[in-house]
Amino acid sequence: MIFCSKQLKYFMESAKKESFTLAADTLCITPSPLSRLVYQLEQRVGCQLFERLPGKTKLTEEGKALYQELLPCYERIQKVEDNWNCRQNYKLSNRDKLVIGTSGEYVNKISTVVKRAVQRYHYRDICIINNFLIDDLIRQDAVFSSLMKGDITVYVTTECYPDNDDIIRIDGAYQILSLAVSNDILEPGSHADEVIYTFPLVQHNSAFLKQCDNFMPLNYPPEYPNLALLTVPDFINRLDLIKAGIAISLMTPNEIRYSAHIDKNIAFLDFESRPAPSVRYCAYTLRNKYKEPLNSLISDLIF
């Protein structure tokens, strides 16, 4: 074991088996060095821990008391060591593995990036984890925890989280937003500047709106009292509300391409006012991982 002495390990196994021979088999050693180390432990604690009988070994009362006292601590140390070994093995097995996390709005672009990653950056195994469709308030903790544990290599989003000493945020270029509206509710000649105040605006995370630049309606000026904001769990929920004509939504170019592929009855209106609303994708990763080839790959993801 990494986190405890040989004497402790040998004593605990011998006490558990009540046999030096069986304990030695478990520890993959011969009985002689095990018996010698247990004897040295007895000298240190100042009492006999085992009765050495012909053909068997038996704990003394002092040995039983010590074993029961140490058992919870020993089991806890074993659990810590097992977790540590799993973590180290995971890191080794994932050295050439790229795990991209996202909350849903980015899936349509991933396939292109994955192809580049295989061809240019030589990742042997690439996968996408798209299970961060959770409440805004706890998503940051889930993302940062997954990055710290190595469950994901990089997280791609439009959300802007506070700085973290271990995690770095890499910002991409701003992308112009358009307004997604169902054709069923769209009046001829309408443009985004007018429509946005006539229906509820639905987004699947409120943090997205903190990233938006040049979107004055978010300040709720007096002349736009009817602007209503809905937040839903994920991108598919947004599409459902848009298709039903219940709400409209600001979308990035990536989301527009994905939506247009799924449903042909959605129109995408540009803003006539300038500057138009825009948002930028960003990526989060561990600072010590942000190096070749990951930094080049992140630029493909978010620019």
UniProtKB/TrEMBL annotation:
Q: Which UniProt keywords apply?
A: Transcription, Transcription regulation
Task: Show the Pfam families listed in the entry.
Answer: HTH_1
Query: Which InterPro entries does this UniProt record tie to the protein?
Result: LysR_HTH_N, WH-like_DNA-bd_sf, WH_DNA-bd_sf
Where the record annotates domain HTH lysR-type, the positions are 1-60
Quote one Gene Ontology molecular function term.
transcription cis-regulatory region binding
> Which family is this sequence assigned to?
Belongs to the LysR transcriptional regulatory family.
Designated name of the protein? HTH-type transcriptional regulator BenM
Q: Which gene encodes it?
A: benM_2
